[in-house]
Specification:
alpha/beta; Aminopeptidase; about 15% strand; 9 strands; 7 helices; seven-stranded mixed sheet; about 290 residues
Length: about 290
C-alpha cells in the first residue's frame, strides 16, 4: 500500500469536466466504484450513522477464488473508468466517490452525501458479486442484476425514479451486452432487487435517483473471465451510460413500468415513515456474508 493509504481516508474523488458536447451536457453524474483498494478493519468496521441507522462504514468486497485473487474493488474501478470516459464524452460532469484504487474511504453513507452536496442528476454504484457455485442449489450462478433501496430519504417519488432507472439498466444491459441476466436473483421485476434498509450507499440520497449495478458473479470462473475482458467492461459501461441517458432525457423511460411496492422513507436518523410487510423481505441472498455492498 502507498504511504498514508490507511492514515488519511478519502472524503471523495475528483470532479471531472466534460470533454464532449453530447446529450448529457449540463448533467452531473456521480460514479461510485464500490468498496476501496485497501481494507483497514479499524476504519471500515467502525459503526457510522446513516439514513438507515447505525451501519458499518463498508464491507471489504468479494474477490475471485483464483491465486492471486482478483478483488472486487479492482473490477469496480476498471469498469468505472470506462463509464467515466463515456460520460465525459457525452458532455456530463462526473464526480468520482474515490480518487484511486489504492487508499480507503469514504464510507458508504458519505458517498450518497457527495451526490447530495453536488445536487447530482444520477448516482451509479458499480459492483461485482460473490455468489458461490452451488449455493441455493444453483450450480452455475452468473449474470448481472440491479439493486435499489426502498428506504431512501427522497421518499416515494425518488424511489419510483430509481426503480425506473433500474428497469432502464436491465433493458440496456440485456440489449447492448452479451452478459446474461442473473440466474440467482429471482426478483420481480426480473433482475431488480428492491432492498429495504440495507444499502447505506443509496439510502441517503435526497433528490438524486440511484442504482447499484452488480455487473456479474466473480466466483464463477467463466463469468469472471468475461468481466476481466476490457471489451466486456466497455460494453457494460456503454449500456449503463445509455440507461442513464434514458432515465434523464427520455420521458417514456422516467417512470417505472412495474407496479411500485409500498415504499418506506428513510430519514437522517434512520427511522422510517412506513414499515415493509413480510412479503417485501428478500427471499434469497445475492452476496455471501462479508461481501455485501
Amino acid at each position: 500500500m502507498p504511504s498514508g493509504a490507511f492514515s488519511k481516508p478519502s472524503k471523495g474523488g475528483p470532479t471531472l469536466g466534460p470533454v464532449g458536447d453530447g446529450p448529457l451536457a449540463g448533467k452531473v453524474i456521480v460514479v461510485d466504484p464500490g468498496h476501496n483498494g485497501a481494507f483497514n478493519p479499524a476504519y471500515h468496521n467502525a459503526r457510522v450513522s446513516s439514513a438507515i441507522g447505525g451501519t458499518k462504514c463498508m464491507e471489504s468486497g468479494t474477490e475471485s477464488d483464483e491465486k492471486p485473487a482478483f478483488g472486487e474493488h479492482e473490477l469496480n474501478w476498471q469498469v468505472s473508468q470506462f463509464v467515466v470516459t463515456r460520460l465525459l464524452a457525452e458532455g456530463a460532469t462526473v464526480i468520482l466517490t474515490r480518487p484511486d484504487d489504492e487508499g480507503v474511504g469514504p464510507c458508504n453513507p458519505e458517498r450518497a452525501e457527495i451526490a447530495n452536496r453536488a445536487g447530482a442528476d444520477f448516482f451509479l454504484s458499480v459492483h461485482g458479486d460473490g455468489e458461490r457455485l452451488g449455493r441455493n442449489g444453483i450450480a452455475d450462478p452468473q449474470g448481472f442484476h440491479v439493486q435499489i433501496e426502498k428506504r431512501i430519504v427522497g421518499g416515494a417519488a425518488l424511489y419510483d425514479r430509481s426503480l425506473a432507472a433500474a428497469e432502464n439498466m436491465i433493458r440496456q444491459l440485456t440489449a447492448m451486452t452479451e452478459e446474461p441476466l442473473s440466474n440467482y436473483v429471482p426478483r420481480q421485476p426480473p433482475g431488480i432487487w428492491q432492498r429495504t434498509g440495507e444499502l447505506a450507499v443509496l439510502a441517503g440520497l435526497e433528490t438524486t435517483p440511484g442504482v447499484l449495478v452488480e455487473v456479474g458473479n466473480m466466483k464463477n470462473p467463466a463469468n469472471l473471465a468475461r468481466l476481466k475482458d476490457p471489451a466486456t467492461q466497455d460494453a457494460l459501461a456503454a449500456a449503463m451510460v445509455a440507461a442513464i441517458e434514458d432515465t434523464l432525457l427520455k420521458p417514456e423511460f422516467q417512470t417505472p413500468t412495474s407496479k411500485p411496492t409500498p415504499t418506506p422513507t428513510a430519514t437522517p436518523s434512520g427511522s422510517a415513515s412506513a414499515s415493509p410487510s413480510a412479503s417485501e423481505s428478500p427471499t434469497a441472498t445475492a452476496s455471501t456474508p462479508g461481501e455485501t455492498p
